[in-house]
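User: Before I run my own analysis I want an independent prediction to cross-check against. Here's the chain; please return only the structure tokens and, at the end, one sentence I can use as a sanity check.
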Amino acid sequence: MEERSGSVLSKLPYTNRGVIRQEELSALIDWCQITVKDISLEEVIERVLRIPSELMEVTEYQKGIAGHELVAVFDNIKVLKPTGKAQYNGFQILMSGSGCRNYENFLQLNGETWFDFLRRVNRYHVNFPRLDLAIDDRKPYLSIPELIQRTKEGLLSSKMREVDFHDSGEVKEEVYQSKGGSLYIGSSASNLRIVFYEKGYEQNRKYGTELDENWNRYELRFRQETAVKAVEELIRCEDVARLAMEVLNSKVRFLEQPKDNKNLRKRLYPTYEAWAELMKEIGKVRLTIEPQKKNLQRVWDWLERSVAPSLKLFAELGKIEKKDYIGDLIENGEMNATQRKLYDDYIKARCFDERGREHRKGVAESERSKRVSRSWRN
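Assistant: Structure tokens:
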């Protein structure tokens, strides 16, 4: 069989096959939910988000969240307005993990960082229902199954009372093989929840990507008052490592079983060595941005894997029968709502890319003019 030289899709200008980070530890804003009051929708889009309003049009009904209706969207960057019992004069900005990655394109275009964005947002009448900080560990320093086992054995010291864990897997040749574990410290309704899980396994299950066994993710999920305080700290210090250290050191410590069995007080137990090493290194972590554009790759992968062989069959039959079976399929096919949105966002994205190129060209020309002017004066 002829070896493929690579996906044709990679030549499309508005797709993303993924970014591989080389750092052992890196941090990302992975969920950002903001309530903005007493301003118009146009102001939310143009002034708060600094996104061209024509890119965030809603062309058809799309599902919002509880008590809120979607009124503007681009990729996974969403603006919602309250309905029913949730009425207030304002809007909610919602960016999931993929939405945060989408928004980082606009941060780059505007020459901004997350700290700049949060500082600007805080000038308005706002609240933060939720903010997630994710730390990616690609060494990895910790074994999630080991953390789960230590938790079961009582070797976890935490001020947070509720703990939950999941460890999926399968038995192959009488040997249990993990397919990804997760450890949750704190309840889903609490103002702070800390989650440790095997991100590589999650991505493999979710998208069918190649399994990366060395990719863990540790999430700090802040809600309500705790989220507001986290944002204030990020704005004040611009230091994500400091925030992560303060939260983890004050809330969680994994332990070693003491050699002296007479010692029954957990606060005197030695710290689990791998946890101590992570806490030492986490002080060096920096907030990174990993901008991603609309991802058509999953659709293309499905076509290559499941559809292309059948298309090839009918293309060959068409040569014999002198019929264009594939052309007829395309001519009579109709895109569903999801596919139409992919298409519409792709068109918007081309406009966004062109605008970005023009902006960067203008900045470069302005800088060049300034240098010429300074040279002339000298």
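Sanity check: The longest helix spans residues 337-377.
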